[in-house]
Design a protein that fits this description.
- This protein has 173 residues and is an alpha+beta fold.
- The chain has a single domain, classed as Aminopeptidase (3-Layer(aba) Sandwich), CATH 3.40.630.30.
- Helices cover 28% and strands 32% of the residues.
- A seven-stranded mixed sheet has the order 1-2-3-4-5-7-6, with helices on both faces.
- α1 packs across α3.
- Keywords: Transferase.
- InterPro entries: Acyl_CoA_acyltransferase, GNAT_dom.
Length: 173
């Protein structure tokens, strides 16, 4: 299925709410991604996503709608050569290879535009689909932290997957 990554804009508000207001997505996100997902949440997110120049948080557009999102978040201090990636996709588009391709495009974008050597993502231990797409996109499991996340009244394992800049002289784990 065809998709494209592009900056968010206020015209995306209705489709953002349509796809983001889904408990099946929110269960694997930080509490900053609420459920229910209201117009106010959407407006706040779009304001945040459009606050960086150049943009580092993109809509995943499918069939002319913002059907998901993906972002790269550079770290600071001693972690400044690292960036965290976060992503989500509307449930009607799951299992079609879109998010794997979006991750691959975002990795290429990040290594081309940011002074980083490593990109990491932190899926929940129970989010097998996210683990699979990261592995398909070339990420490797670096750490498994037991019961470090607290979501919906339960402790969850946190996994840390990462990919390194091609040709990096940084030691592999």
């Amino acid at each position: 299925m065809n998709f494209k990554l592009r900056p968010w804009n206020l015209a995306d508000l209705d489709s953002l709410i349509k796809y983001a207001n889904n408990a099946a997505i929110a269960q694997f996100m930080t509490d900053q991604f609420p459920h229910p997902y209201t117009p106010e949440h959407g407006q706040n997110f779009i304001g945040f996503a459009t606050g960086n120049t150049p943009s580092r948080i993109f809509a995943i557009e499918v069939n002319g709608e913002a059907a998901g999102g993906i972002g790269i978040h550079p770290q600071t201090d001693i972690y400044r050569k690292n960036a965290e990636m976060g992503y989500w996709l509307g449930e009607p588009f799951w299992g079609q290879g879109i998010i794997t391709q979006a991750i691959e495009q975002m990795v290429a974008f990040a290594f081309q535009n940011l002074d980083i050597e490593r990109i990491f993502a932190r899926p929940f231990g129970t989010n097998k689909a996210s683990q699979r797409v990261l592995e398909k996109a070339g990420f490797v499991l670096e750490a498994h932290l037991t019961k470090t996340l607290f979501k919906n009244g339960n402790f969850e394992d946190e996994l840390i997957y990462a990919v390194r800049r091609p040709g990096s002289n940084q030691a592999s784990l």
